[in-house]
Amino acid sequence: MTATTTAPGPSKTLGRTVVGATLVAVFVGMLVYTGFEYLFATPTDLAEFLTHHLFPALFIGLVVSVTLSVLLHSKVIAPVKKIFEHLYHVGSGRLAPLELDSRIEEIDTVVEGVNLLVQRLKDSSDNQAIGKAADDVVKLRSDLKRAVNATASGADEFIPVMRDLQHLERHLLSAIEAAKQSA
């Protein structure tokens, strides 16, 4: 038996979703309010109905919708876009911390998580770089030994190179020890 999956519909922005839901909620609230007003204080004519019942409800709905839209954009959508842009840069290799003060607990928690991720990526890339450098030193040493063996007459020329390689290896081992102690 195979399960069939349906493709998800086109995605909507958070702002459009919340504003749409707000408009629906305001419209339903307006209908209920107007219905109760009509039942308990039946208007005498259409002008009274529009001016005392319908227009105030529409105005309140418009104010609520605009206020929520502006608030949502400034407090949620703009910070989320900035977080996304920062994560895009992190994916491209720019491991800088994210600086964003939103004063919204959930956004601040995400920012802390992004900064923790960036720090761990920095730490792991440093350790990987040290490991790769150590591998390169080992390969270089074997290449030099092979070159010395191939040209036995010119072995004295490789002595300064081997000393430099030994110093490099010592410095690399010190860096590895320092990285282990800081971890």
Task: Outline the fold blueprint.
Elements: H1 14-40, H2 46-91, H3 105-150, H4 159-182
Helix pairs in contact: 1-2, 2-3, 3-4
Total strands: 0
What's the overall average pLDDT, rounded? 77
Order of SSEs, N→C?
Answer: HHHH
How much of the sequence lies in strands comes to under 5%
Query: How far apart, in Å, are the first and last alpha carbons?
Result: 51 Å
Tally of distinct domains = 2
Poorly predicted ranges: none
Question: What coarse outline follows from CA principal-axis ratios?
Answer: rod-shaped
Radius of gyration: 34 Å
What this model shows, in words?
The protein is mainly α and 183 residues long. The protein has 2 domains: 14-94; 96-183. 78% of the residues lie in helices and 0% in strands. It has helices spanning 14-40, 46-91, 105-150, 159-182. The two termini are 51 Å apart. The model has no long low-confidence stretch (mean pLDDT 77).
Which keywords apply here?
rod-shaped, mainly alpha, 0% strand
Short recap of the structure:
With about 180 residues, this protein is mainly α. It has 4 helices and no strands.
